[in-house]
Amino acid sequence: MPPTPSTPVSFVSPTVGTPPPSPGVMAAYWNAPPFRRAFGEVVSRVTRGLLLWHLQASPIAQSAPTAQHRLLLRALQGIGTFRPITVNTVRVPGVVGMIGDEGCLLLSLTTCEAITVNGEGGGASTPRIPADASEPLRRFVGMHVTEDIAGQLRGQAMGVALDGAQASDAQEDNRDTHRIIGDLRNRVERATQRGHTVDGGILRLITHAVRTLPGIDGETFTAGIQGVTREVPHRASDVVYLNEPVDGPQIAPSVELAYDLGTAIREFANDVFPRTPSDDGLATATVFATRFVDSVQQCRILTRVSNDVASLIESGMGDTEFVTAMLAAGRGLGDGKFGAAFASMWEQVPGQIGACGRQSTVPQLVKLRGTRLLQQVPRGHRILARLTSADDDPQGGYDDMLSLGEGHVAVASHVGTELAPRFNLTSVDLTRADGDIVWSEDVGAWRRDGHHFDFWIQSDTPGVFAEPIRQELEAGSLNPAPLRGALLAHSSLTALQAERPGASGWLLGDTTTRMLDASTEIFAKYGFTDIRYRLIVAWSEPDQFKPAVSFALVGKGAGETFRSWITSGYVDRVVADLLPRRTLGNGPRLTGDICVASEVDWAYFYEEHSATQCIKYVDFDTADAVLAAARRYTAVPGVLPGDFMPAGILLRVPVWSSASARAS
To answer: What superkingdom heads the lineage (predicted)?
Structure first.
C-alpha cells in the first residue's frame, strides 16, 4: 500500500491534431535506461502482488490444495524464477512463467490472470498438451496476441517453454525485463502498423515506469500507446460502488491493485513466507494473504472515496442549491459542513466502513503549522479550523474545510443575511501570501478577516509529515572517547553490528535487549542520569513500508569526568547511537560504527548524511518500550514515512515529501 494507492489509468484520446510519435521516438522511450530500470521494479511488484491475490482468491478451506496453490507459495518463498515464455513458436507478450514439480504457473502482467499447465516439466518446458485439452491455455494466450496468431493455435497440441536465463554484468540490468519490454514493444508496434488495438493492461503496466521520463516525453510515450489502446470496464477488484460497471467475475485483480499489493509486501516477504514444504505452511500463507489483500483494499477504498468526495465538492462549486442542500443535510447528521458529502458516497459502498490498519493508535488532532504541511494533506480529507482565542474554551467548536490537494481547500460560508440566508462554496488557495486566508509566521497561526485561527487534521490523515520538527538547541560538542570505547567493547553491540542490515535474522530479540541493558549499565557507570531510550526510524522512499531502525541511549551528564569531555559550547545530554549504519548505510565516517555525540552534533550528523531520507525519532522511558515500538514499526503492515508517529520528532523532512503530496 503506497502512500497513495495506484490510480487507474484514464483512457483519454491524445490531443486532437497532435501527430502520433514516430516509431523511432517510441523505440527511444522503450529503450531509455531510467524507464527500463523502473519497469523492472514494476514487474517485480506486480508479480508478487499477483501471487498474493491468486493465493487468497481460492481458499484452501473450500478445496484440497491444488498444483496452483503450491506453485504460488513456492514463488512467494523465492523458490523458482519467472521468465518470459513461448507457446509452441509464439512469443506471448506480457506473460511470465515458472516451472516446478507441480507443473507450470503462468502469470499475465497485463490481464493479471493466472493459469497452471499441469504435468511435470522437463527443465524449462512442459509436456505438450493434446489439442482437445488445451482450450484454457489457448484462451489465455489469445488475450495477449493478435487474432490471426491465436487462430493458428486452434486444433494444435500446445507446450510452454521458458526463456533461458541470461547473465548480466550490472545487477540492475535485468535481461528478463529487457525481453518483456521487447515483447510489449513489438505488440504495440504491430498494432500501430496494422490498425489493431491492445488491451489497456499494457498502458497500466508501464504507467509507474513512464514517470521516470521527463514530463513531455512521458506524455508523448503514453499518447503513443493510448492511440492503440481499447478502453475496458473496471476490473471487479477495483469496483468500489454498487452502481459501477464491471468487466465480469472477479477472476483477477487490476494491475494497480497487484502493484499496490507487491509494494506493500516487498520488504516483508522473507519474514512471512518461510520455506516450509508442508500443506500446513500453505494454509497459513493463504490465511495471511487473505487478510493482507483485504487490508490493502481497505486503504485503497478509503483513498478512492476521499478523492471522489473532493470531486463531488468541486462539481458543486458556485451552485447555491447544492451547497444549501449539503449544509442542511450536514446539520441533520451532526457531522460538519461536508458530512453529507461523505455519507452520500459511503452509502454506495457495500459492507462496513473499514480502516487503514497501519495506524494502531486512536487518532488525535494534529496542528497544521505553515503551508508545507497544508500542501501535503490529500484530497478529500477534512481540515478543522478554530479561533486561537478558543483554545482555553473547551466548548469552543471547530469549523471544517475540505482539502482539494496542493494547498487548495473547499470553504462553505454564509454570504447572505439573517433574513435572506445564502451560502457559497468556493476553492481557496491557502499557499498564496496575498489570499483571504494566510499563514502568519510571526503569530504562528492562520489569519482571516482580522482573526487568527489554528488548523488541525486527524493524525490518521495519510502522507502528512505532521510530527513537530526538532527544536534548535544551544551548540556544543564533546569527545567522549572513554564512553565510546566502553560501548564498543561489549560483545552484544559487536554481534548486532555484524548482522547484515535488513537481514531477516535480526528479530529485535535477546541480543538487542542485552545490548540496551549493557549500554544502560555503562551509561550509569559514567554518572549519566535521566537515561532515555531512543528509536531512530529512517525511510529512503515514499512507498517504503518497513523502515530501517537504530537504537540510541540519551543521558544527562554530570561531574568532572563528563565536563572534561566537552570541547566547546554547552552540553548537558549525550546521545549514543548504537546502530547508525542501519539507518544511514556505509556513507558516514564513524569510529567503530557508532555515533556518540552531543544532542546537537548527533542531529547535525543525521542532517548531513540523510538528504534523501525521512528521519524520525521517539524517546521512551524503558528498553522494553523502545523494543516494542521497533517491532511494531518493522512488522506487517509496517509504517510509511507519512504515517503519524505519536510523540515522534521529525529530524529530517525528505526531499520527496512535496513531490509525494502532489502525486497523491
So the answer is: Bacteria
Grid cell at residue 581: 549504519
Q: At what angle do helices 23-31 and 175-194 cross, to 10 degrees?
A: 160
What Rg, from alpha-carbon coordinates, does the chain have? 28
Residue in the structure block whose three cell numbers are 521516470: 212
Q: CA 57 to CA 53: how far, in whole Å?
A: 6
Q: Is the peptide bond before 637 cis (omega within 30 degrees of 0)?
A: yes
Q: Do residues 285 and 79 make contact, with C-beta atoms less than 8 angstroms apart?
A: no
Distance CA 550, CA 590 (A): 15
- 83-87 and 160-162 strand pairing: antiparallel
Q: How far apart are the first and last CA of the chain?
A: 13
Q: How many angstroms separate the CA atoms of 307 and 403, rounded?
A: 10
At position 73, the amino acid (one-letter code) is: L
378 and 306 Cβ atoms separated by less than 8 Å: yes
Query: Taking the domains of the chain in order of start, what are their residue ranges?
Result: 23-295, 316-458, 476-663
Q: Which residues of the chain have pLDDT under 50?
A: 1-4, 6-17, 169-173, 504-505, 659-664
Which of helix, strand or coil describes residue 167? coil
Pairing of strands 229-230, 198-199: parallel
Q: Exposed, middle or buried, 381 (CB in 10 Å: 0-12/13-18/19+)?
A: buried
* Cell reading at 186: 513489438
| Number of residues written out for the chain | 664
For domain 476-663, give the CATH number.
3.10.670.10
Measured CA to CA, the distance from residue 529 to residue 573 in angstroms comes to: 9
pLDDT tens digits for range 355-403: 776 776 778 899 999 898 899 999 999 999 999 887 655 556 789 999 9
Per-residue pLDDT tens digits for 446-461: 998 889 999 999 998 9
* C-alpha cell at position 407: 494547498
Short-list 318, 340, 317, CA closest to 327: 340
Q: What is the reported pTM?
A: 0.89
DSSP 458-503: ETT-TT---SPBPPP---EEE--HHHHHHHHT-HHHHHHHHSPTT-
Cα–Cα dist 335/332, whole Å: 8
Q: Beta strand 595-598 with 573-577: parallel, antiparallel or unpaired?
A: antiparallel
Tell me the torsion sign for CA atoms 52, 53, 58, 61. Answer: positive
So what's the pLDDT on residue 658? 56
Question: Cα–Cα distances in Å, from 251 out to 63, 164, 186, 229?
Answer: 17, 30, 27, 22
**Separation CA 259–CA 1 (nearest Å):** 9
The secondary structure of residue 563, as a DSSP letter, is H
Cα distance between residue 631 and residue 427, in whole Å: 43
Across the chain, how many H-helices and E-strands are there? 22, 23
